[in-house]
Specification:
This protein has 21 helices and 28 strands. The protein is an alpha+beta fold and about 650 residues long. Helix 12 runs antiparallel to helix 21, helix 14 packs across helix 17 and helix 14 packs antiparallel against helix 20. The protein starts with 12 loop residues before the first helix and ends with a helix.
Length: about 650
Amino acid sequence: MFVPRRHRRRRSPLAVAATCLVVAAGLVACSGEDGPQGTVDAFLEGWRKGDLNAVGFVDPTGAKISAGTVVQEIRELSGELVDAPLTLTRQGDPEVVQNTATASVRAEWTLPGGTRWAYDRPVRLTQGRDDQWQVIWEPQIVQEQLTRGDRLGLRRDRATRATVLDGAGEPIVAPRDVVRVGLQPNEVTDVKAMIRELDSAFRAIRPAITPPVDLSDLPKRLKEAKPDAFVEVVTLRDEAYRQIKSRIYPLSGTKFPTDKLDLAPTREFARAVLGTVDPAYAEDLANHPDRYSPGDLVGHGGLQGRWDERLRGVPGLAVVINRAGPDGTVESTGTEVFRSEPQPGQPVRTTLDVATQNAADRALRAERRRAALVAVRITDGAVLAAANGPGATGENLAFTAQVPPGSTFKMVSAFGLIERGAVTPDTTVACPKRFVVDGRAFKNSDDFALGEVPFRTDFAKSCNTAFAALAPQLGADGLAAAGRTLGLEGEWGDLGLDAFTGKVSANGGATEQAAAAIGQGTTVVSPLAMAAATAAVARGQFVPPKLLLDPAPASAPGPGPQLPPEAVTAVQEMMREVVTSGSGTALRDVPGEPVHGKTGTAEYDDNPENTHAWFVGWQGDVAFAVFVEKGGSGSGTAVPIAERFLRALAD
């Protein structure tokens, strides 16, 4: 039907919505449906998905641009942020003026490390002859300072890493002198001879470098380096370098630049407790690409690893504009469009005491077997030292070993027996050469026998047969109950590192009970657990050990109940007799306050010749435990270590 021209009018938006069809180039956003906001929303959704075929584009001159071109340009402009999470939100409705519209869009990037970068950008639109709204594409939509060919880039500014503090609040790790031992290739006349000399010298350093310096690739490195280059072999602490200076300084081609590095007082200083700080390993970068970048310092093991996030702080992050050159090389333009300042790390304060730790490390220095020495303050349970050997080992046996305690556990058995009234220190208890329980023979070291003697003598001389005979008087659960009173198997709260609190035999048969009474059977402990139990005997009350002062543990259990005075005093006196007249007499003349203790020799398999060596004790306000894996007898191996420790403390 013909309609006169004067009656024609523009179609209503509802009519447009009803008749809108897909047009060329795949454009489907239809302005009549809900105005330009529909196109804006489609644009934002397509930007996020990397598919803009639902949107039409023109450049500022009005020339059409394909959706694929816009997708490619957005990716290029995003640069290093191309895979960063991006939230795009329309801010209110677009402002429409005739056939143009402007929408405000909020872009919020989540940068590495969780840093947020948000800003608003205008998106301009134009309405074509077909009534569809099209986005006027320009690089400034991505960021206002971008032009075609630019790329967003990231620059990280490392935060200052905090340190681990000792109990006095002083840094354990501090700048210390080092010497970088290296070679200048064109001055080395005989590479094989040089390697022999260096290897021999490095192996002479004490304490030994563990693992030894690997020189296997040195010939290749020298061959590939420039003739006058400095090829570093190893970095030594100044004190280690001085041990071998006279041997390596005269060698032709050697160079020795000095430097300072953040290091603990010694190479082995609480190594397993502290952990290490190293340039990011390949696995660090692979497992946490959003957290670490090449060259970042990362904590590994110990407190440095456990508290790495706290210690390392938050890196600063800058978004910069880079530009691709004619050859495709991307270089910085020097323009910075966003910056978050680095936040320095927070220190971790421990209870460690430098003098006590040095004494513990020195005591283990000559030990070639796996060993541990842990010391706690009796009055408050503070861990003063945790040494592990041999050398700068990374395994924290002091906290995590799960091994039989041997005769050191007679401290627990004696406490349980006296507390129950089964014996007193002066009760006569026979100590025969052997004692048989349900067909199993228990014997004493070297088959000694004491005959009919006071219980205090059985304890001081570490008579296995006497304790095996007394075991039934503890009952099925009596030994475990006594151990728990002294803190074994307890909930100690969070020490900041993993620790084993022990597992005491309970409800076993007669043979198991006899074995458990002398620290064998299914009972296993850690050196820390035994040091804490020893401190409980010395104090008359168990106080959970603690290693961290800041950050303070979320839940720190309080002290246990007061121990029965008569029982604890009796055990204290008997542990003194171990030193004055028993198996620990080598400690009688140690300077300072009286030493109390108990030796231990613990079988760890079916061969009675295979034993761990133990000693637990205290002097003054310091309780400690010494453990040597496969160390033989406690008196022969652990007691000398305890003596070195106590004498070093007295120096």
